[in-house]
Every structure is written in structure tokens, then in C-alpha cells.
Write a structure and sequence with these properties.
The structure is a homotetramer. Chain A is an all-alpha fold. The first copy, chain A, contains 10 helices and no strands. In chain A, helix 1 packs across helix 2, helix 5 packs antiparallel against helix 7 and helix 8 runs antiparallel to helix 10. Chain A is elongated and about 60 Å long. The structure holds a DNA duplex.
Chain lengths: 213, 213, 213, 213
DNA sequence: TATGAATGAGACTTCATTCAT
DNA sequence: AATGAATGAAGTCTCATTCAT
């Protein structure tokens, strides 16, 4: 809009799709897919309505792109980080939870779980994709670590699949909460403290020595 | 619709609003508020479009009514049940979780958390109402029980507020999951098993003897 | 509503159509035909919505009935009064204007001109009926009196048809005004004074001695 | 509508609102506000339904705009013309009436009085605006001229306020009539002749020499 | 590439009319 | 005769999408 004719301009042009995706993500998360207007997306991205359609076939394609483009790099990064970890299973769990939270608690990804939860019913394909690509893969990391810990005697014997979900549930809960009720009602919610408490209680709860019934 | 003159008229006026609310709740939960058409609500409730407007001023009023009418009786019942409980703090926590799940896990209320999470951004008033009337009140029950248990030496000293959230997070997570990704992606999710595991791990995790670090 | 079982009841029953017509007239005049709801008519008449349809086939029939039932008796009365008048043409004009105003200035008929003006475009049949049955007949009374006065040398020679309209225009204007802008804007409008001034100026204006150019 | 690619796009944006206003005015005058559908307005203006909403927030705003945009320039012009007039009070009255009729008798403004009369009850704000901005201002012109004429001995002493209304009443009457009953009933109404007769009778009626009682 | 005026399908909502009671 | 719950056609308005510029 006025700032033509330089390398700056070229750079911006290339960045357009990403800027649009960012705008769309923010609005989809805040208001939901159906309640978000393409006008708003365009305005927030600093382009005109028509421009959005140069890069995305339609609103649904924009949603898909938002989800997919966000998920792919995040996953790659995530699994790489995990692969490089060493140490006790307990330390690994600690690291997984911290990393997961560092990645999903803030930043662009943080709204994704809320978005997917809200739109799963209307976009089953996308929900399946998210479920397979993200949720299950992440859960597998936890589950394997738990199984390792059980095998090594660090953790007491337990249902590793359920426990993996348990490890993640508060993380998902926190990220959803932050983008929904925490904004408009439940203001005294401190995600960091909550995640710390989770780590503490969860690790105690699965400790091999802990089941002193 | 042609099929007059049967039992349609008998169904007394008094039942209509509830039937419409049920239909609306189901659809709002499944598709979200904005993506639900009033026609659908009407059709699912077995009435015509106009009839909905005999009982609810507009779509938003219907949403409010759905939430409020559902929440009020549930809350009354919930607190009554809790008040009648006796025994150790650990038993009380067990009972609270079971009851909460019995109430919110199935039946009409089960979709409410997902609905509120999805619509909080668009209906902040309603979100605040829900947060105060439901979430905080429920959390207070957990928090007091935890404080009692700590005082009695059953539980190790911990941040009772955060722990109360931790106790509830998997419950909320499970009910949200069941109405979103569990429907369209994550099919191997068994809420009952998950809740059991939560009870087990959580109680171990806060046990006074457990933190044998 | 509740006051059954007596002669009073019978009387009311017979009066129903008229009560409904009165209610309808008042609302049609105030808000116009299209903006008046049958509910309002019913409520103002103190009956239920369905009852209106016992007496009038539909909304348009109600309008027709309102106009026709009001016009017929008024006309009969008007012409009778006029037929009985004697004296100079000037006195007759005075009497006609006074009577017209007495009849149309207040009471149930007073809103009719505004109503007909507003709805003429949507109900040409009715407009034609009103035009023929009321406006033209009334104008003929004036016109004949003017012609008489001219013939008798009381009034100067002039276009009696146009003058008849001139005699009526302020009357019509006043009754329309009272039911429109006088209600919501032009509050310092005193119809009586206005009509008096009209009589005075008009009679001077057509006086045989007056055109002393 | 299929016929793209021609001169439709050229017609510059700036003209659209006026075209829509013209279409709306014609229909509002003919059928009344409530009975006019936005589709009709759009079709008559040669645009689609949605386009109307690009320029006017809603139906009521369109009505307001129609009235206000029409009134403002007309008033400016009217008062300018009057200010430039010289001569006897009688000539000024003659000029005022002729001008008023030239302006309101034909053209876009001619329907306004009928429209305002019909809708005053439903839009009191607008009625007040019209009453203050148009009716009263116009009447003041007449009233001052009459007062001048009385002071100068041209006119006999009379209630100048009432007489100002009398001067205008036939004009208003004629413009209302033309857009209502004259269309559908009273076909032998010749406004020009009527206005001429009014001028003649009114001036005679207020002439200083005329009250030869 | 980018724009934004224009479109029209489709949503919400109203209300004249019907009909079982 | 009277009611008022129910209906559904029709109206207002929105917004995803297109396309001339």
C-alpha cells in the first residue's frame, strides 16, 4: 500500500501467504471459523479482500493451509529435539512436557488445539489429519518414554497409553483454556504454575516407589 | 409437513422449549453456534422455523438459555451431593471425580464444556457466567477437599489451587475430546479408562507418602 | 376475556366487528397498513388474533371494511344535513366548511384522509372508491353552492371546480396534518384557528366585491 | 444477471448512491416505506440487492438519506432565490408560490410531502427533522412576507401565522394529491389550474381593499 | 499482482393466516 | 364463537466469492 519499488517490497510479496495465514489463524482461534469473515482476515493481514483469493482457493482451503503449514514444521522440529535427548525416563518426560509447553503454550501454535477442537465437527478430514499427524505422534513419544521407564523400573507398572494421555491432558487443557475461558472469565489462571504442578504430581504419581498403598 | 391431526398438538406447550433447547444444544456442540442454522434446530426439535421464535427471542438468546437452563439444575444437584459425603479426603476426591464424570461425561451436559470453549470468544458475557457459576464453583469443591486432606496429613503439602485444576483438567479434557476429535479422528479414546487412570495417578501423585524423593 | 354469561356479553359480541374496525383504523392511520400487525389490531380490540379472522377474511378485507363502513353512514348524514340548509350561498359555504370540519376534524373519520392518501398507491380500487364516493361527492356540494353564489351575484365569476377544491384543500390538509406531522414535529398547529382563517380568507377571496383590481 | 462486461462498470461509484436514492424515493412515495422491498429498490436502481447495503446501512438509513439528501440542496436553493426577490409583498407572495410549486410540484422533491405524511408516525425523528428544516423554514418565508405586506398596507390585518399556512396548504395538498388519489381515483385534477386559482383567490382574500364587509 | 465494487445464495427473523382445541 | 400455538412464505441483511480495472 504505497511502499513499492525495492527489495523490501519483494520480500513482503513472498511473505504474503504467511501473513494471511497468521491473520487467519488468530481470527479462527478467537472467533471460530464460521464467525470469521474473509474481510477481517484480509484487513488484519494488511491486504485487500481479493488478494486472499490469489493465494487460497477459498475459506476452507485457507483453514486447511493454516493448520497444515503450522503443523508440519513444528512436528519436524519436535521430533528432532526429542531424538537428541538422553538420560533417565523421568528426565525425558520432564523434557517432553517442558518442550511441548514451550512450543504450544505460546506463539503461533498455541491456538491450534482450541481451533481444532472447535472445528473438528465441521471438518472431519482436517480433524483426522490433526489427530494422526499431531496428537497421535506426540502421544507416541510420551508413551514410549513411559514404557521405557516402566521397563527400567523407574515408573511403576501402569497403562502406558492412558498415562501418555494423562501426561498431555493438562498441557492441552492449558492451551485451550488460555484461548477461551481464560480470556473472558477465568482470569486467575497461571499456565506456568499449572504446568509445573502437573509435572510434579504426574511424576510422583507414576513413580515406582510411589504406589505405597 | 402434512401430518397434522395426530399427536403433534397434544404435546403440551410446556415441553416445547426444552425440546428446542435440547436440539439446539446438540447442534451447537456438534457444529458450533455460527455454523448451526435455526432451521436445523427447528427440524431436529420437530417444529417449524417460526416456532423457535415463539420461545426464544433470537439465536443468541437461545444459546444463553441452553447454557443457563442446563447449568442451574446441574449445579444445585452437584453441590447437594457433595455436601452429603463423608469419609477421608482421598475418598472424597474419588467421589468428586466419579460424580463429576457421571454428570458431565454423559448426557445433556457432556457437550457444554466444548461449547463454552468454542464460543467464549464470541460471547464473553456467557463465558464469564459459565466461568463463575460452574467452573469456579466446581473447582472450589476440589480445592477445599484438597486443603482438608493436606491439613489431615493425607496429602503432601502442595499448591491446592493448582492441584484442584489438575484434578479437573483430565475430566474437562475428556469431555471436550469426546465431542470433538474423538468423533472424527482419535477413535481409540476410552474415556472411562482414562478417568480411572487419572484417579489412580493423581491420588498417588498427591499422597503424603508418595513424594519419596 | 372472562366476563361471560349475561346480556352484557351478548351486546359485546355484536359489537365485536366494530371494535375491531376501530382498532384497525386507529393503527392503520398511525402506522400505515403494511406496518400494522394483525396482533396489534387484535390486542387493541381486546380479542385474540384468531378472532379477527372470524369477522374479516384477511388484512386487506379489514382495511376495505374499515373504510367502507366508516364512509357510508358519514356520507348519508352529510348530504342530509346539507339538503336541509337554506340561506345565502355565503352562509351555505360557511355551513359546509364548519360541518365538514366538525365531521372530519375530530372523531373516527378524522384519520381517513391520511390513511387513504398513504395507501392509495397500494389499493387503487379502494382509492377509486374513496375518491368517487367521498371526495367527489363532497366536492360537488361545494361546487354547486359556488355556482349558485356566482349565479346570484354573491361571488365573483371564477372557476367553480377549482374553487371547490380550494375550499376543501385546507380542510383536508388540516386533517392529514393532524394525523402526521402535527403529532411528531409541527406541534404549534391549531386546526381550529386555521380553519377559521381559511373561512375568512376564502370568502373574502371569492367575494363579488372583493376583486377590486 | 448475465450482462457483464459492458458499460455497467464504468458508471462510477460516485453516482450509485444517488441512483439508489432516486429509486428508493420513487418506491417509498408510491408504495410506502414498509411495503417497499429492498429488492425492488435495487432492481429499479439497476443494481443487485447486496449493492444497496454497500451504501446504506439498512432500510431505515436509506429512508433518512433519501429525505435528507433531497432536502438540503433544495432548501439552500430556495432561500437563495427568495433572498434575491424585490418588489411589492403581493409580487413576492406570487413569486414564492410559483417557485415553491416549481420546485415541489414536479421533479424529485414532489413526492416528499406525501412520503413524510405517510411515515411521520413511524419515524418521528425524521418527521421532526422535516418539520423543522423544511416546513417551518418555508413557512417563515411566507409569514415574513405577509407581515411585510400588512405593515405596508398591501394586505389587510390578519393572523400572519395562520395565513402563511393557508398560503401553503393548497400547495402541499396538490403535491400530496398528485402522488396519491390523483393517481388512482381523482383523475381530473389539474394542479396547475388549481395553483393558479389559489393564487388568485388567496391574494384577493388578503387584499387590503378586499374585506369590504 | 492487487484491488474493492458488485453479486446473489443463504441466513435470521417477522407476521399473516390456519386450525385443533 | 373464541383462542393462541403453529406454520411457512417472504422480507431484511450478510458475506464468500468474482472480476473489471
Amino acid at each position: 500500500m504505497g511502499e513499492h519499488g525495492s527489495g523490501r517490497w519483494q520480500r513482503r510479496k513472498a511473505a504474503r501467504p504467511d501473513e494471511i495465514r497468521d491473520a487467519a489463524l488468530a481470527l479462527f482461534v478467537e472467533k471460530g471459523f464460521a464467525a470469521t469473515r474473509m474481510d477481517e482476515v484480509a484487513r488484519r493481514a494488511g491486504v485487500s479482500k481479493g488478494t486472499v483469493y490469489l493465494y487460497f482457493e477459498n475459506k476452507e482451503a485457507l483453514l486447511r493451509s493454516v493448520v497444515e503449514e503450522l503443523v508440519e514444521p513444528a512436528l519436524a522440529q519436535a521430533e528432532a529435539q526429542v531424538a537428541g535427548h538422553h538420560g533417565s525416563a523421568r528426565d525425558l518426560i520432564r523434557a517432553l512436557i517442558s518442550q511441548w509447553w514451550a512450543m504450544v503454550g505460546h506463539g503461533r501454535l498455541s491456538g491450534l488445539p482450541k481451533l481444532m477442537v472447535a472445528e473438528a465437527g465441521n471438518f472431519p478430514e482436517l480433524a483426522r489429519y490433526f489427530s494422526e499427524k499431531v496428537v497421535k505422534r506426540a502421544r507416541r513419544l510420551f508413551q514410549r518414554t513411559l514404557e521405557l521407564g516402566i521397563a527400567q523400573g523407574e515408573f511403576r507398572p501402569l497403562d502406558a497409553a492412558a498415562a501418555a494421555r494423562l501426561a498431555m491432558a493438562p498441557l492441552v487443557y492449558a492451551s485451550i483454556w488460555r484461548h477461551s475461558l481464560a480470556c473472558c472469565g477465568d482470569e486467575d489462571f497461571d499456565p506456568e504454575r499449572f504446568i509445573q504442578a502437573h509435572l510434579d504430581v504426574f511424576l510422583s504419581g507414576i513413580d515406582a516407589a510411589g504406589a505405597c498403598e
